[in-house]
Design a protein that fits this description.
heterodimer; A: about 350 residues; mainly alpha; two-stranded antiparallel sheet; two-stranded antiparallel ribbon; about 65% helix; B: about 290 residues; 2 strands
């Protein structure tokens, strides 16, 4: 964080390799069922964190693309009988849908709040539509959409070119870990590129970047599509883990959950969302085992407290604390207090 | 003939429903530029209050028209003091915090009342219109919504209270220099908005069974109605309610209620793209 809050951060290869090793060796010491789910959630959180933290775009309905990925996978896999095309489509379809939705919003110069409404309403439309698709009339190829019950029993991942060799259990875990680490590297590469630098500029001051001759809507549309594709990948992996897809994947609950993971973990970092997803995901699974305290009560309380007390989230606050206390004296040029550095929303002045 | 009357009545009822469920949100958004994503849960609590009072033997009209607004208004006051007042001017943060509040309230109600539906029978019997059986209670809802709009307009337009509220929203500095404390105005406006949500919850409670998650059914509709309406509280809410209510019911009669709802949501997205400031950002600019 030496470059101030606007920095894109940098690649810590040592940490990355250590973490990768830990993830690879994990199946030796533990069951992989839960870690697989946590890694999928981390990937989903990473996708939103990349867009929100670095481009300053908050989607209130990011679950739309997660669910689209899952449904695209399930429908394609049922029709083709194997998973390679399904997985590719599960990344492409959400990406392309997001490109259309994003272009509509960003070229229309729609301000923060209205963007929140449109993203949220879009997820709701999908949620309602999928919930209403019970019955024979709603089928795509050989896949019945199934309304509220969703689509069960589609072919799970297989080794490309060999539909009879299925990937599940520890195999699926490794696929998920490779996807997570791969997407992290992609995110790092994007942020280090000229494209990423321009995105940071747009987050800090969109008018200035535009006056320098950049086409801000095009940049925002591109990052929206890229992160939606990542969310779609996470959704298709979830479909493989759960072996069923239901309309609740598009639901408001899913959208708010990922927002909580990202904001609690930390906005403006890549590791923050992952940490948030893992910690809060574990908490959710623990709370699911008892009936005394309701899960949404705890999640809601966390969201309120984080917004009020730690508006930058856990990871950046810890880093700032470390910069203040451990490297005291050296980090004096660090800008800003504890407020998040998005420019305060100026009503509807756009 | 009868069928036309039924369709018309259903459209008017839907408009009244939208006005009623979004009035509280509209007051808070229009005057303070705060979007309360826990609005649906405020409505839900209003409904639970009415049902609990009615079960305890209280007159149901007293419960829905007096007790529910009071209880939810008080709750809104507490929320404003504890959470919302720290976040004025930070619109997205307010949305996030109130979304958290909505989850918290769902969890709390689930723990207190359990995850089962509670309901109370409608106090007005149905009637026969030609060959169609109609809900008599719907007429009561239409009456309440009409009365609400008229009262809101009278208060904002003709009373000193309304003048101070509108003044503080337009220019907090000027209101402050004239001796009115904008913070108090914000506080009471939020409380009034919450009370309106409580009223909506109470009045709508006899229609359907209530679940802790019922708030989610209101929030999406109220949200798009208010945002599409734009900043002018009354004209905005009325005009978008008319548009959405009509579309929803016409499409519903032509296909299924779910498709009707989807048509309404899709229309909202299109309208926002065409008019990013809402209807009153483009038309009726100088209305209350």
């Amino acid at each position: 964080m030496t470059g101030g809050f606007a920095s894109a951060g940098r690649m810590h290869w040592g940490w990355f390799i250590a973490l990768a090793l830990l993830l690879i060796l994990l199946p030796l010491g533990s069951d992989t069922h839960t870690p697989t789910l946590l890694a999928i959630w981390s990937l989903f959180a990473l996708s939103l964190g990349l867009m929100w933290g670095y481009a300053g775009i908050l989607s209130f309905g990011h679950a739309a693309y997660y669910g689209l990925g899952a449904y695209t996978y399930a429908i394609t896999a049922m029709n083709t009988g194997e998973s390679t095309a399904a997985l590719i489509l599960a990344v492409l379809v959400p990406g392309m849908v997001a490109a259309v939705v994003g272009a509509m919003m960003f070229y229309g110069r729609i301000s923060d709040v209205y963007m929140g409404v449109i993203t949220l309403v879009f997820a709701l439309i999908l949620n309602k539509f999928m919930g209403a698709t019970a019955g024979e009339a709603y089928r795509i190829g050989s896949a019945r959409l199934g309304g509220f019950n969703g689509i069960p029993a589609f072919p799970i991942l297989n080794v490309p070119g060999d539909p009879s060799t299925q990937i599940y259990g520890t195999g699926l875990y490794y696929v998920v870990v490779v996807c997570l680490l791969g997407c992290y590297l992609i995110a790092r590469w994007v942020l280090g590129s000229a494209f990423g630098r321009t995105l940071l500029g747009i987050r800090e001051n969109e008018a200035r970047v535009e006056l320098l001759g950049y086409n801000a809507p095009a940049y925002k549309t591109a990052i929206f599509a890229l992160t939606a594709a990542m969310a779609g990948l996470a959704g298709s992996l979830f479909a493989n883990w759960a072996e069923i897809v239901t309309p609740s994947l598009f639901g408001l609950g899913q959208s708010v959950e990922v927002i909580i993971w990202v904001i609690a973990g930390g906005i403006g970092t890549l590791i923050g969302p992952v940490v948030g997803a893992v910690l809060l995901g574990m908490l959710k699974l623990l709370l699911g085992e008892q009936t005394l305290v309701d899960n949404s009560l705890v999640l809601g309380a966390i969201l309120i407290l984080v917004v009020l007390l730690l508006p930058r989230g856990l990871a950046p606050s810890l880093m700032a604390w470390r910069a203040r206390h451990v490297v005291s004296g050296a980090g004096r040029s660090r800008s800003g207090g504890s407020r998040r550095r998005r420019p305060p929303p100026s009503g509807d002045s756009r | 003939m009868d069928y036309t009357a039924v369709v018309l009545l259903e459209i008017v009822y839907m408009i009244a429903f939208l006005v009623l469920t979004s009035a509280g949100l509209a007051v808070v958004f229009g005057m303070m530029r705060v979007i309360n994503l826990a609005h649906g849960e405020f409505v839900m609590i209003g409904g639970y209050t009415t049902i609990a009072c009615a079960k305890a033997g209280l007159n149901i009209y007293v419960a829905m028209l007096v007790i529910s607004p009071l209880v939810v208004g008080l709750f809104g006051l507490i929320v404003e003091r504890l959470v919302v007042r720290h976040l004025y001017g930070r619109m997205i943060d307010t949305m996030l915090a109130t979304w958290g509040l909505s989850l918290l309230m769902v969890g709390l109600v689930t723990m207190i009342f359990g995850n089962t539906a509670v309901s109370v029978p409608a106090p007005i019997p149905g009637y026969q219109l030609g060959e169609f059986q109609m809900g008599g209670y719907n007429l009561f809802i239409i009456a309440v919504a009409t009365l609400l709009v008229v009262c809101l307009w009278l208060v904002l337009r003709f009373t000193r209270l309304g003048l101070v509220a509108r003044g503080a929203m337009q220019s907090a500095d000027v209101a402050s220099s004239l001796g009115y404390n904008p913070k108090m105005v914000y506080m009471w406006t939020f409380t009034a908005g919450a009370a309106l949500s409580g009223l909506a919850g109470g009045v709508l409670a006899p229609l359907t069974g209530l679940l802790p998650s019922s708030g989610a059914a209101y929030i999406a509709k109220a949200f798009i109605t208010v945002i599409t309406g734009g900043a002018a509280v009354i004209v905005g809410t009325l005009s978008s309610s008319v548009i959405f209510g009509t579309i929803n019911q016409l499409v519903s009669f032509g296909s299924t209620p779910v498709i009707g709802e989807i048509a309404m949501l899709a229309l909202a997205v299109v309208l926002l793209r065409l008019m990013p400031q809402g209807i009153t950002g483009r038309f009726f600019r100088n209305s209350a």
